[in-house]
Amino acid sequence: MRQYSKKTFVWIAWMWMIFFLMPTFEGVHEYTKGLDPSWCIALKVAIENKFRFGQDFLFTYGPLGFLNTGYIPSGFVYQLVSFLVHLLIQVGFVVLIIEIVKKSASKVIALFFAGLCFFPYRFVGDLSFTLLILQIGFLLLFLQNKKIYSLGIVTIITIIAFFIKLNLSLAMLVIWFGSLLFFVLRRYLTIKFATVLASSTIVLMLILAFILQTDILIYLTSGVKLIDGYIDAQAVMNDINGIRLVLALLALLVIISLFLGICWDYLPFKVNNKELIADRFYVICLIAMSLFLSYKQSFASLSSTNLYGFFLFFPVMIGLILLVENSKKIQIKVIVLILCSLLFRNAIHWYWTGNLRDYVFSALPTAKKDLGNWQHRESTIEGIGTFISTSSVVRFFSHSFDDENITYTKEDVLERSFPHSVNEYLSKGTVDILPWEISYIMVNKLKYNPRPIVQTYQAYSGYLDSLNAQKYQSSTAPDYLLYQEFPYREQYFFWDEDRTKLCMLANYKVVDTLAVKQSVGYDSLLVLKQNTNKKTVQYNLAKKVTVKTFEKIDLPDSDELLFLKFNLKYSLFGQITRLAFQPPYLFVNFVYDDNRVERFRVIPSVLKGGVIANIKVKSFSDASTFFNTKGLKNTKIKSIQLDSPYQWGFSDSTEISIEKVIF
């Protein structure tokens, strides 16, 4: 009877995964315009055109990043890789669910919670975090049964993750090598075997880097700078204000308190067995680290969707404790914590959708897309049919190896098409676009020649900006540039990528201005063409001084462009808040030559790299004047002053340098 029961639940676990998880691994079959689709498409194009990652193309996503975005490059090989990786993930989760079921006295309850944990509305949409959960799950499984196959799977997962998303994969490498050391110290592995596993990981990563055309050293070093700058540049609170923010933080506080309650049971004085203490310390460190990574991902840019994302992964990560924990008391606490996180997650889901029908037939965090599919149905029955068909195994297989060309929606094509006369001269050369809207290049079938950091808002440090500037100064620079200027969040967006803009001034000239009709109004773009003779940009130091961080700085009256650098540093409290939640926000007040004053958000890492300080470029008209007159006819900024509601978050004094720009 026991064997029969065991087999029954194993089959239930398998069928659960096959019919519910597999369909979520579906590639994108229609492009859209916008910020996020732009980098997803750029990543796909970079892979198809065999760009060298780390050198020609640099992003937080790597050459296997398409496994996360769904924008799968053309070719059977990429489809096959996608299928195999997703199959590995499915099988991995099946194994973990079965192990949870095996350890529990109540099989029905165990399977119920395993299902809730491992199938929370397409949580596998973020493949990098899915792999993190799998990595930790199989490390804990090895801790439980000491079966070597678990470590083999962890090796594969760690290597794949490294080429998908660099920022999270660095943490996964630390977890992997740290775990090997722990297993050696606990004598679960011999030093020789642990060395073989570590060496195999490194060698296979180098081989795969060669195959995937990745300059691994630059990929690593530059990627670290991308990750560090991301914390400052992307810290924002979207559509969460007032009472909603308070409630969100209270929900988080409840979750943290309950988790600390579980940690309390792991304290040394609660157990006498030293070996058990070491293993429990390892377990709690793994789970705590994964939760912190998920928390930082969600709260860097705080919004309803990101909050949902945190509560999406939380129950899965907590549920992994059930793989290794025999104490019924701790198991009950884990289940209570899972239920609480499920409650918060569904509360956010309800808040997003607003009514029962949309709540039931939508799948956050892609709720907007799913709701669109649902609401456009003529009847409820048709809507249910659409929902089921988009989540069926049949649809997955029917599209997995479909190599048709991906196209834009008809509406997007209409809003992105250039006149024939424009395409005629643009098609004779290569093209890049600033700040990011690649759909203009794709729709008009132009030859895309991107700078390494493909989106302006991602070049959020002097080092990253300089990589793009070098591209525009080099022999591989694009022949034409398309340029737009528009607001980005509450930031003074012109200060992003200023070294690159100065190289544009030196080596390009405006040859056309485009007004592309949109559903509402027009989209304005400048067309710049590369000059025959290249010039270099030189910076002559005019002034270097240490000032009080928040005092007013009067800029010299000059017709030349002034390049200002702030060597701004966080205070100890600022560094703590930057790590624990978000960095303290920084603002700048401009006083123009007509005595008008404006206030903008600014990014410390951008200020440190250097900005064009003495002219205003806030609109498309300002940008056109800047590129046509080299800033001579732009409104002048005569003084700037940093400001912050959190002045305690920054050092009292800052070293600044003012340089004159000479072409």
UniProtKB/TrEMBL annotation:
Keyword set, alphabetical order: Membrane, Transmembrane, Transmembrane helix
Protein's recorded name: Transmembrane protein
Iron-sulfur listed as a keyword: no
Transmembrane regions: 9-25, 76-98, 148-164, 201-222, 242-264, 276-295, 307-325, 332-352
Superkingdom per UniProt: Bacteria
